[in-house]
Amino acid sequence: MAVANSAAGNTKWLKCPGLSRAVSSWARASHNDTMILLFTDFGYEGPYVGQMKAVLHRLAPETRVIDIIHDAPVWNPRAAAYLLAALARESEVGDVWLCVVDPGVGGSRLPVVLDCGGVFFVGPNNGLFEPIRRRIPDASLTSIDWRPERLSATFHGRDLFAPVAAMIARGEVMPGGSVAVDKQRTGADWPDDLAEVIYIDAYGNLMTGIAGSTLNDGHKLRIGSETLAYARTFSEVPAAALFWHRNSSGLVEIAANQARAVDLLGVAPSTPVAVI
Amino acid sequence: MAVANSAAGNTKWLKCPGLSRAVSSWARASHNDTMILLFTDFGYEGPYVGQMKAVLHRLAPETRVIDIIHDAPVWNPRAAAYLLAALARESEVGDVWLCVVDPGVGGSRLPVVLDCGGVFFVGPNNGLFEPIRRRIPDASLTSIDWRPERLSATFHGRDLFAPVAAMIARGEVMPGGSVAVDKQRTGADWPDDLAEVIYIDAYGNLMTGIAGSTLNDGHKLRIGSETLAYARTFSEVPAAALFWHRNSSGLVEIAANQARAVDLLGVAPSTPVAVI
Amino acid sequence: MAVANSAAGNTKWLKCPGLSRAVSSWARASHNDTMILLFTDFGYEGPYVGQMKAVLHRLAPETRVIDIIHDAPVWNPRAAAYLLAALARESEVGDVWLCVVDPGVGGSRLPVVLDCGGVFFVGPNNGLFEPIRRRIPDASLTSIDWRPERLSATFHGRDLFAPVAAMIARGEVMPGGSVAVDKQRTGADWPDDLAEVIYIDAYGNLMTGIAGSTLNDGHKLRIGSETLAYARTFSEVPAAALFWHRNSSGLVEIAANQARAVDLLGVAPSTPVAVI
Predict the structure, then answer these.
(1) Are strands A242-246 and B140-143 parallel, antiparallel or unpaired?
(2) Do B54 and A44 touch (CB under 8 A)?
(3) What is the rounded distance in angstroms from the CA atom of residue A127 to the CA atom of residue A134?
(4) Under 8 Å between Cβ of B81 and B128
(5) CA gap A150, A55 in Å, rounded
(6) How far is it, in rounded angstroms, from Cα B102 to Cα B156?
(7) Do A246 and A217 meet the contact criterion of CB atoms below 8 Å apart?
(8) Which of A66, A69, A202 sits opposite B57 (nearest CB)?
(9) What percentage of chain A's residues is helix, strand, coil (to nearest 5)?
């Protein structure tokens, strides 16, 4: 079973061009092409995303901010980590990912930046960046020593991570510098691919934490009592038939043609899957 | 009954200024005032809208992107087409509508651009642009021959339609050119106004696909076993009373004062209505 | 009980820097740092927010628009007013708040602008700005005399308030001028702090309309049959334990550690709370 050992031969899974260009991380020349991408579990309702974006706009008014996802696995940095690694595959130099899945906010977990040669990930040191870290050998994980004048007990996304993302987007050196924390990282014992349901989309498709590139078309997927074969896309199976495919973010996904796989299977996030 | 034949005398329903200004479609001088407007059935959760916007920002960083609606009738290009025609009424030269209600993604349906003299609609050739096409006599419908290096089987919104919308926003000629497909268009047999519920909004109001301008105030609307009279607005009827009015997008809409029409009527999208 | 009389000693609750800088309200020199912040009860689905943003972009293309919240208390300007006052605390000169919680749209309520010395609030004169007005002694409330060419009966957010917000963001004098309406303001009899649940967030936390600064840590909060003690943050109480804290917007909030307070208490918006 190829899943557990896939990363070694797969270091370009995150196609980060920064790895082949010499980019000084904390002091980039220009911010014209910078983009801040938001990855949170805040949900789509309420003021939290907006408050964070207001801070970003005040501190980096020329930087475009893109909402990638706000319903990442809630309070589940492990599942969220594999989703983030998939969504971040197409990152380009200058991208700053602001990532907040942070059940330990207000506790002792460190705030960190993962620098993948010009693509940055800002967030809590709770394993959220571990799958990316593992795929980018030259990436460096450093603690954020800077603290804002006012730090609420419950909203570091707005008060700490957003200002740091803005500083990086502006090409500034963070006051206080940073310290490598590669040795303290959470998730070092996590698998390279997570063989469970990590996200259920609005159409009822089940994303797993398994990279599509680690399976061949002959592999089958077992979930509950069902065994599913591969199909390239929806229209290649009969209506309501279940199958697995490589989704548009590169993950192994369980889907059904013109039907909701989640309802057909009656499963929830974190349900394990097995590759056979 | 005026509904079925309304379009002939109603060609300015889409108030597209481009029709009276000579605009070279594929090569506009400036993109400063360009706006890309998103119309999809992706829903508001999950990463799909964000991934599409990230592509738009990379390819047309100076163009503002506006989310008009992401809960257009799911997998229902016919109902969505009449909603789009209503929402697009106020378009101005330079607007690029990126429209993805595309149940046939990955199949044989063509990607197309409808050019209404400087207002563009990019999306699948499944009838989504048919009501607009019919109201703008000079509009041209052309196929998109360009293909990206990487085209996923399931996400043409991100991989194909978004890059094309960005090219148009930048005033570029599309590589590969385009071919008129006016003769192959889907929906040529659809009515000018769609006498059914096409969208139910968050307040429980029921939008129909009937242009408000085709009815006079004496018309009544029949839905299920109810017959509804016209009122100008909510406060002109008693609390919880049902009525029809011309909504802020110009459509005939069924509503109730301080109550949810959808709950009072117990109806679903696609329920037919009759004008009497 | 300190709640009812807190505002007198609390006039800086809205930390509006404009109060200490001399800013000519209607004619600011530059709009580079201007931001339009949206506060509505439109919900997150449907076309209404997008249509409003399209208007803003056409009229003030250089101004960033931030969605602060779109699920403000529906049709409840009183509860919404206290939430707005909390969210607007961090406003800066140049901010234009576009606020639409407007059950009286189409009726006789005036459209108004509250000018807090360079921070503006545009919306209906239904009390929505009253708590802010009361905390900023120099603020002026003026009616909006300008009317658009086309004013729908039901969507003043798009047709009237958005264009006015754009004019202010551009630093323009509003055609028609404005008249002080301080004497006609709604909500003059409302309390300084609203001792009820005004908003329930996606995590099930219950925000009240009580400013956190008006209570000390020894105060207890009574809701239903429960009496809750203060804790600084979630991790300071046992799992599933209820407590009150000052939330990241400065409001007294009822929460539970790793659980949904709303479900534990079984309460709804507008439930009264008592400080003891």
Answers:
(1) unpaired
(2) no
(3) 11
(4) yes
(5) 13
(6) 9
(7) no
(8) A66
(9) 25, 25, 50
Closest CA to C101 of C13, C186, C172: C186
User: C25 Cβ partners below 8 Å, 6+ apart?
Assistant: C115, C117, C118, C120, C140
Rounded distance, CA C266 to CA B120, Å? 50
Question: Max CA-CA distance within chain C?
Answer: 59
**Cβ neighbours of C219 (radius 10 Å):** 18
pTM, to two decimals: 0.90
Q: Using one digit for the tens of pLDDT, what is the confidence trace for C179-234?
A: 677 666 789 899 999 999 999 999 999 999 999 999 999 999 999 999 999 999 88
How far apart CA A111 and CA A164 sit, in angstroms, is 10
Q: Nearest to residue B191, comparing CAs of B89, B85, B269? A: B85
Residue of B107, B100, B68, B90 whose CA lies nearest to B16: B90
Q: What is the pLDDT of residues B212-256, one digit of tens each?
A: 999 999 999 999 999 999 999 888 899 999 999 999 999 999 999
Distance CA C69, CA C78 (A): 16
Beta strands in chain A (DSSP E): 35-40, 64-69, 95-100, 111-115, 120-124, 140-143, 194-200, 206-211, 221-223, 226-228, 242-246, 251-256, 274-275
- Residue keyed to tokens 């799958």: A131
- Residue C45, chain A, CB below 8 Å: the answer is no
Instruction: Give the count of alpha carbons within 13 A of A140, CB side only.
Output: 12
Question: Chain C partners of B33 at a C-beta cutoff of 8 Å?
Answer: 61
CB-nearest to B202 from C46, C107, C159 is C46
CA C205 to chain CA mean position, Å: 18
Helices (H), chain C: 48-59, 77-87, 130-135, 156, 162-169, 261-265
Rounded to whole angstroms, the Cα distance separating B267 from B250 reads 22
Distance CA A245, CA A138 (A): 31
Q: Is some CB atom of chain A closer than 8 A to the CB atom of C147?
A: no
Angle at A265 between CA A263 and CA A271, to 5 degrees: 110
β-bridge pairing B251-256 and B274-275: unpaired
